[in-house]
Amino acid sequence: MASAPHRTGSHWRSREFHTQLLPGDVPMLVTVVERYDPVVAARHAKAAAAQRCPHCRGDLSEPVPDEVAATPRVHFAGEPTSDVTADSDLARTAHRAMAVVFEAIDGRRPVTQLNQLADLSVVRYVWAQTGSVRGQRVPSRIYSCHVRQPWEGIGEVFGVARVGSRRIAAYASRIELRPEGWRLAALRVL
To answer: In terms of pTM, does the model score above 0.70?
Structure first.
């Protein structure tokens, strides 16, 4: 973690994460640069010690219910190939799904509308994210949305968005082709 002074009581720091959407996927290196305020960090540390979420004040000591825990799913574990024929519906569906995700997070759209576009684990993840932006008047905005298709029937969606008025966040998603069409199979907003 590197930090450089920016203004009194505030610093910039960058963090690097190695992440995979699903086991077996190619690891990605994500670098996040954010403003770091020691006063806020101390408040968050105090909240963590009290087992409370610093944003929604929810109890973090409660175990995750069995029905919320993600169930393991079969996934493709092959190497990416260069001879994949890009699906014309993938980009349109991915952009629409990301718009619905961020509109649901900031409360402009019911989370239940994701049921047609995403797996249940993604719907639950988005539902859990909605509490952090409640009461904010600024809508989320997608700044970039990149789509690639490394395997037949599998797509990757990633980009940058403003989540409410609180922060700029990177997001990554896995989208899979099912008999009913393309569906979000995994999502993380960093």
So the answer is: no
d(CA 72, CA 87) in angstroms, rounded, equals 26
d(CA 51, CA 69): 20
Q: Is the pLDDT of residue 154 over 60?
A: yes
Q: Identify the burial level of 143 via C-beta atoms within 10 angstroms of its C-beta, where 0-12 means exposed, 13-18 middle and 19 or more buried.
A: exposed
Please say whether the dihedral angle defined by the alpha carbons of residues 93, 174, 114 and 147, taken in this order, is positive or negative. Answer: negative
pLDDT at position 33: 73
pLDDT at residue 71 greater than cutoff 80: no
- For residue 160, how many other CB atoms are within 10 A of its CB? 15
Domain 2-189 CATH (choose: 3.30.420, 1.10.3470, 2.60.40, 3.10.450):
3.10.450
